[in-house]
Amino acid sequence: MVWERIARLKSEKQNAIEWALLKEFTLHPVAEAQVARIVKVAGISRGAFYNYFKDLPDAYRYIYKIAIRNIHQNLHTKDLANATDFVQQTREFVKGAENSDYYQLMQMHYLHNESYVSRLVLPIEANSELQWARITLVHDTLRGALVQPETAEKRFQQLAWALKQLEG
Q1: In degrees rounded to 5, what are phi and psi of residue 80?
Q2: Which residues form the HTH tetR-type domain (predicted)?
């Protein structure tokens, strides 16, 4: 994979590229992003950009993956046994995003760039309907809370109510 080439770079160069990508994709949707701005900020050539990434959507997926990993690593992982656990984990993710360098990237993601990242399609398994419903509700709550932060608390309450209904 082309991304492996970035992993072999000195951390200073890698950080410069990641900062340039974060800046570009925080300020511009993928459809309006420009390689020229990225390479200028990163201090690399256009050829180097294409050595590391296939195209702009590939570069976006790279920085998005870093953002998700960074936000998730600060979550308190535990078994999600009930509605309260799911809501708490969702709150922590939103708070983690808000307190990270990736908050505006996440907002831009849900407003403009979500289609550039493949969505996880859960396999249909026996008795998996409840898990599918929980994941769908959690991700919709995340999307809404990040795009419209003023509605976050109401969305968490809505999520709690819906998940408790599913629990029966």
Answers
A1: -95, 90
A2: 22-54
Looking at the structure, do residues 63 and 14 belong to the same domain, yes or no? yes
Residues 90 and 160 in one domain: yes
pLDDT at 132: 86
What residue numbers bound the domain in which 65 lies?
A: 3-71
Q: What is the mean pLDDT of residues 138-148?
A: 96
Identity (one letter) of the amino acid at 13? Answer: K
- Cβ-based burial of 29 (10 A; exposed 0-12, middle 13-18, buried ≥19): middle
| pLDDT tens digits for range 27-44 | 999 999 999 999 999 999
Q: In the listed set 11, 40, 71, which residue is the last one of a domain according to the structure?
A: 71
- Give the pLDDT of residue 112: 96
Residue-wise pLDDT for 66-92, tens only, equals 999 999 887 776 677 789 999 999 999
> Domain check: are 8 and 32 in the same one?
yes
Last residue of a domain, one of 71, 96, 131: 71
| Cβ-contact 43, 16 below 8 angstroms | yes
C-alpha to C-alpha distance for 168 and 99, rounded to whole angstroms: 35
